[in-house]
Amino acid sequence: MGQNETDRHFELRNLDKSIEEAAAEASRVNPKEHVRRLRGENRFMLLFLALVIGVACYLLGVF
Question: What parts of the sequence cross the membrane (predicted)?
Fold first, then answer.
């Protein structure tokens, strides 16, 4: 049973380290290029959504 406790101890230590690394990575500031790319994707999705709504309205006879 001592070996299992040792394995469990190291698993928990590695888990704590992984959590700390993930938290540090999540709090990093995004570079400007990444933000620009996200804005472009958001604009594309907005235009696509407007197009889908327009086609749906046209098919339903709203226009």
Answer: 44-61
Q: How many domains does the chain have?
A: 1
Q: Which residue has the tokens 């406790």?
A: 5
Q: Is residue 48's pLDDT more than 80?
A: yes
Mean per-residue pLDDT for 9-38? 79
Return d(Cα 7, Cα 17) in angstroms, integer.
15
Q: Which domain holds residue 8?
A: 3-60
DSSP 36-48: HHHHHHHHHHHHH
